[in-house]
Predict the 3D structure of the following.
Amino acid sequence: MKTILITGASRGIGREIAINLAKEGYKVIANYNKSEKEALKLQKELQSEGFSIEIYKADVSKTEEIKQMVEYVLNKYKNIDVLINNAGISDTKLFTDITEEDWDKMINTNLKSAFFASQSVASNMIHNKNGCIINISSVYGMVGGACEVHYSVSKAGIDGLTKALAKELGPSNIRVNSIAPGAINTDMNKNLTKEDIEELKKETPLGRMGETKDIYKCVKWLIEDEYTTGQVISPNGGWVIV
Ligand code: NAP
């Protein structure tokens, strides 16, 4: 069975993906950083249902911690077949208020992490002539979001990484794609008011916010697919159509 490393899997979208892939029988290594309690709960819940998952603490904004995590996984499992760069943060601020510190935190967590995690697994995937990298970006990477300029830049950067890497690694049979979700019902959107959510629904042709399972379904399809690479696929209910 394939070995899958997913970053930021203690909560939200990553958690949903990790649970479902573990239930499908994949060997899943679920990274977390601050939410140890949630990560342990996820592991316990799966174990109580007869499934297994490994959890691993690393701050993906720190390249050294990514490298140690990948080394640990490769030593233990020999291969990483699928890397899912999901860990991310958001921040809402006026452009003129964004500090260099805000920028560094955003770029290091959302973009640098995906770059160096991909680089860390690449040699193993190239050697195997097989691999799948899935980067979780955002609709804001495609169309930009006011008051989320640094977040939008980080996600546009992810899509650039996806496209360039797909070209470079395609000849080694490694597929690289982005999933760019619309608004998904997770902690990341807990600051939205009831009115905001109603407005969002009105603007969305399919009439609802996304759920984490909508993103899992897309991930599952990309893992199984064999001919899609360099693409930005956007499950967003039609909220953004480009
Ligand atoms: P979430 O519920 O806030 O969860 C974020 C996850 O990322 C947590 O598991 C968190 O782990 C992890 N994380 C954050 N910083 C980390 C770090 N330095 N090292 C390791 N893990 C870290 O957010 P979400 O909605 O599931 O978002 C997941 C991804 O989808 C993000 O990349 C986000 O940008 C993207 N996305 C979300 C939406 C949306 O509407 N929700 C839309 C478009 C794109 P700990 O708590 O353990 O630190």
In short: The first strand starts at residue 3 and ends at 6.
